[in-house]
From TrEMBL:
Transmembrane region(s): 21-39, 71-95, 115-134, 146-167, 179-197, 212-235, 266-288, 308-328, 364-385, 391-411
Gene Ontology annotations of biological process type: intracellular protein transmembrane transport; protein targeting; protein transport by the Sec complex
Main location: membrane
Location of this chain's protein in the cell: Cell membrane; Membrane
Protein name, entry field: Protein translocase subunit SecY
Family as reported in the entry's similarity comment: Belongs to the SecY/SEC61-alpha family.
Originating species: Mucilaginibacter myungsuensis
Function: The central subunit of the protein translocation channel SecYEG. Consists of two halves formed by TMs 1-5 and 6-10. These two domains form a lateral gate at the front which open onto the bilayer between TMs 2 and 7, and are clamped together by SecE at the back. The channel is closed by both a pore ring composed of hydrophobic SecY resides and a short helix (helix 2A) on the extracellular side of the membrane which forms a plug. The plug probably moves laterally to allow the channel to open. The ring and the pore may move independently.
Mode of membrane association: Multi-pass membrane protein
The keyword Cell membrane is assigned to this record: yes
One of the Pfam families matching this protein, by short name: SecY
Gene Ontology cellular-component annotations: plasma membrane
Oligomer status and interactors: Component of the Sec protein translocase complex. Heterotrimer consisting of SecY, SecE and SecG subunits. The heterotrimers can form oligomers, although 1 heterotrimer is thought to be able to translocate proteins. Interacts with the ribosome. Interacts with SecDF, and other proteins may be involved. Interacts with SecA.
Length: 449
């Protein structure tokens, strides 16, 4: 405990770090206050706040910190920006024009950021149209002119998303970094107290098992978090030797370094892609009511069924290999290593090095994808034990991986400030390791989520 208070004191002594933390908290406070500002022309008193608690909309509502169900100006959150970032990243792999921009350094990144912003506006405007027509009932519309109501609310939603994106950039520049990721994390954490209270009420107050069952659930959640941390931080180090050069009286190179290859280089993206596909059966059932009684569709639509979880796990494994293949380029890594005079001991430079790195990536991606699949289906097992659906989401899936990754990144940022000014780190032994970025085909990194 004394070590903890000493670390807090050291953090407060560093003026730059203190200002960055305060700025981050203030920006996040603005975001949370804005999440309760209802869209103009919408009567919040008649909204069904329980409507978007489950399924894909429930997941979006969690990422938006509850703004989605409250018809807030921040209802769409930063998800349109994340979607635009992914699209631009994929274009950088498939389209030569965008690939060229990725290789142009700072000027190229600025151009890609502009393209991302333009695409964010287009995606947000399209999603705003769908949100207004599907989530805001007619009895909640205070403006009788349908055209004016649609226009005003769509502009408000688009402006809200752009403002949230601006807040994320300010947190990155003036705060402790990872602005967009921190905004998503705060939105997820905002749902945790309510979920815990609901679960406590159902177990203890309503007599759904008693306090012992509730304590067991909390312990199980802690164990799952620990397992997720191990998966997120897992790396396979490849030793790289750099040739020794003597220039004048100084020696350069001649040292051994390591390439850290992440066990889960694809991050949370495979779960997001697989989750989107798993909502197709339910969507088909909504558009074609006659097919909703089909046994296969019913099984795939039930997230607690073994058929749903088996297909979900297989899709995650497939998408993990796919996304790792398009974001991690062994040939580019081999070429960069060769240009800097580096080589892997016992492996010839060039194609042999590329093949060796590709083989290592393939070997570690399989267990990584299986671990991701296990984490993703844990909430379904929690549901089988009658855990509240809101609380079960924190036992795994997209939300837990995002929380763990962002918290580790933030702690790493704080620790780097402490060590740079010759203070002790946050831990007595070792270093906090965040999500070490793996170079992609164009030398950039996947969007942090």
């Amino acid at each position: 405990m004394k070590k903890f208070f000493t670390t807090l004191s050291n953090i407060w002594k560093i003026e730059d770090l203190r200002v960055r933390i305060i700025n981050t908290l203030l920006f996040l406070l603005i975001y949370r206050v804005g999440s309760y500002v209802v869209l103009p022309g919408v009567d919040a008193n008649v909204l069904d706040l329980q409507k978007n608690k489950d399924g894909l909309l429930g997941l979006l509502n969690m990422f938006a910190g509850g703004s989605f169900s409250r018809a807030s100006i921040f209802a769409l959150g930063v998800m349109p920006y994340i979607s635009a970032s992914i699209v631009v990243q994929l274009l950088g792999i498939a389209v030569p024009y965008f690939t060229k921009m990725q290789k142009e350094g700072e000027s190229g990144r600025n151009k890609l950021n502009q393209w991302t912003r333009y695409l964010t506006v287009a995606i947000t405007f399209a999603q705003a149209y769908g949100y207004v027509h599907s989530q805001v009932p007619e009895n909640a519309q205070l403006i009788t002119n349908a055209f004016m109501f649609n226009l005003i609310t769509m502009l408000a939603l688009t402006s809200g998303t752009l403002f949230v994106m601006w807040l994320g950039e300010k947190i990155t520049d003036k705060g402790i970094g990872n602005g967009i990721s921190l905004i998503i994390m705060v939105g997820i954490i905002a749902q945790l107290p309510g979920a815990i209270i609901d679960e406590f009420s159902s177990r203890v107050i309503s007599g759904g098992g008693g306090p012992i069952i509730f304590i067991v659930e909390i312990v199980a959640l802690m164990l799952v978090v620990m397992f997720t941390i191990l998966v997120v931080q897992g790396v396979r180090k490849i030793a790289v030797q750099y040739a020794k050069r003597v220039v004048g009286n100084k020696q350069y190179g001649g040292v051994r370094q390591y390439i850290p290859l992440k066990v889960t280089a694809a991050g949370v993206m495979p779960i997001i892609f697989a989750q989107a596909l798993m909502f197709i059966p339910a969507t088909v059932g909504q558009f074609f009511p006659k097919m909703s009684t089909n046994s296969v569709l019913m099984a795939l639509s039930n997230y607690t069924s073994w058929q749903h979880n088996l297909v979900f796990a297989l899709l995650i494994i497939i998408f993990t290999f796919f996304y790792t293949a398009i974001t991690v380029n062994p040939t580019q890594m081999s070429d960069d290593m060769k240009k800097n005079g580096g080589f892997i001991p016992g492996v010839k430079p060039g194609q042999a090095t590329s093949s060796y790195i590709g083989g290592v990536i393939s070997k570690i991606t399989l267990p990584g994808s299986i671990f991701l699949a296990i984490i993703a289906i844990i909430p379904a097992f929690a549901g089988l034990f009658h855990v509240n659906s809101q609380f079960a989401r924190f036992f795994g899936g997209t939300s837990l991986i995002i929380l763990v990754g962002v918290v580790l990144d933030t702690l790493q940022q704080i620790e780097s400030h402490l060590l740079m000014r010759h203070y002790d780190g946050l831990m007595k032994t070792g270093r906090i390791k965040g999500r070490s970025a793996v170079p992609t085909a164009a030398g950039t990194t996947p969007p942090a989520i």
